[in-house]
Write a structure and sequence with these properties.
64% helix, S16 Ribosomal Protein, Chain: A, 209 residues, 4 helices, five-stranded mixed beta sheet, alpha+beta
Length: 209
């Protein structure tokens, strides 16, 4: 397929271009079929053979994007299929920009819809008083809940103490009874010892007589 494209010429740091007709399979710097004009981007000078350009395009030669721009500036008639072709990356960038713009507009519209209209000062004062009353009610209910919790905890603690008291009293009574029995046993042992001593003394006196 034939293409109409720019081929670089000129010296270093001063590029000029030829408008050439070439085979699309060949490199840009390779041989070309025909030179139909030239373009100097520094002086904006364009020279094009319009008849040859229109002839080649009528026969199917496809102009590049840059050549399309130049031909439009020179008012050269382009076929309907000769459309400025965007690169794949440019298409993506434009689509992303369009999406971002649409999302930004939607966000702005949503924010505007969510923001309520300002009411008069009287309504704002009423709402503020209502909010204060609600806050006081909430605080009072919270205090009541705290007091009830404290009372419940105190009652539970007193119940636990009452349950522990009888068992402790029983333990103390058992200890007292055990200690009393020990005392009685000790006294009985003392009495037996004294009785034995008295019996020995009486036996000694009898033997003396």
């Amino acid at each position: 397929m034939l293409v109409i494209r720019l081929a670089r010429t000129g010296r270093k740091k001063y590029a000029t271009y030829r408008i050439t007709v070439a085979d699309s399979r060949r490199a840009v710097t390779s041989k070309f079929i025909k030179v139909i004009g030239h373009y100097n981007p520094h002086t904006k000078e364009i020279v094009v053979d319009k008849e040859l350009a229109e002839k080649y395009m009528a026969n199917g030669a496809r102009p590049s994007n840059r050549v399309i721009r130049l031909f439009e500036n020179e008012k050269i008639k382009l076929p309907k299929w000769a459309i400025f072709q965007q690169k794949h990356g440019e298409k993506k960038e434009k689509a992303e920009k369009a999406k971002k713009a649409s999302t930004a507009k939607e966000a702005v519209s949503e924010n505007e819809a969510s923001v309520p209209e300002r009411e008069p000062t009287e309504t704002t004062a009423e709402t503020s008083t209502q909010e204060e009353v609600k806050s006081e009610q909430i605080e009072s209910s919270a205090n009541d809940q705290v007091n009830t919790k404290v009372a419940e905890e105190a009652q539970a603690a007193s119940d636990q103490i009452a349950e522990k008291a009888p068992s402790e009293a029983k333990d103390t009574n058992l200890d007292e009874t055990a200690s009393g029995e020990e005392k009685i046993a000790k006294q009985a042992a003392k009495i037996e010892d004294t009785a034995a001593e008295v019996a020995l003394e009486s036996a000694e006196t009898d033997t003396k007589k």
